[in-house]
Specification:
With about 130 residues, the protein is mainly alpha-helical. It has four helices and no strands. Pfam families: DUF983 (PF06170).
């Protein structure tokens, strides 16, 4: 099976498809990762996007939605319940729909760039009194 290229990273990631074959789906539910690809059998246990997609989405979308809330407050001085009815759904609509494609993009990026969990390297300790022979 041929690996995907960096050019198709966006394609397979945003479509939530297998990063190796580009055919199998990544998710069982909304954001629950499947154990393996149904098309090529790639084991998805390597993928651990953790909270990365949610963090980037929240940090990106918080600025325009907060700016809107501040503008709404300064321009119209609405009651608190109006903020709850308008601003909160706007925040949810700005964040929730893009979580899945963003998580797919992170998983595809981990596969293509062979990302692994960080590990500490154990230094080799030279044996005292050992001689080297050429």
């Amino acid at each position: 099976m041929q690996r995907t290229t960096d050019r198709s990273l966006m394609s397979v990631g945003l479509r939530c498809r297998c990063p190796r074959c580009g055919e199998g789906r990544l998710f069982d539910g909304f954001i629950t990762l499947k154990p393996r690809c149904e098309a090529c059998g790639l084991d998805f246990s390597f993928a651990d996007p953790a909270d990365g997609p949610a963090f980037f989405i929240m940090m990106t979308m918080a600025f325009p939605v907060t700016a809107f809330g501040i503008w709404l407050e300064l321009a119209y001085d609405p009651p608190l319940w109006l903020h709850a009815v308008v601003t909160l759904p706007l925040l949810l609509l700005a964040c929730v729909p893009i979580i899945r494609p963003m998580k797919g993009l992170f998983i595809a990026s981990q596969y293509i760039h062979k990302a692994e969990e960080g590990r500490f390297a154990v230094p080799e300790v030279p044996v005292v009194g050992a001689t080297t022979r050429d």
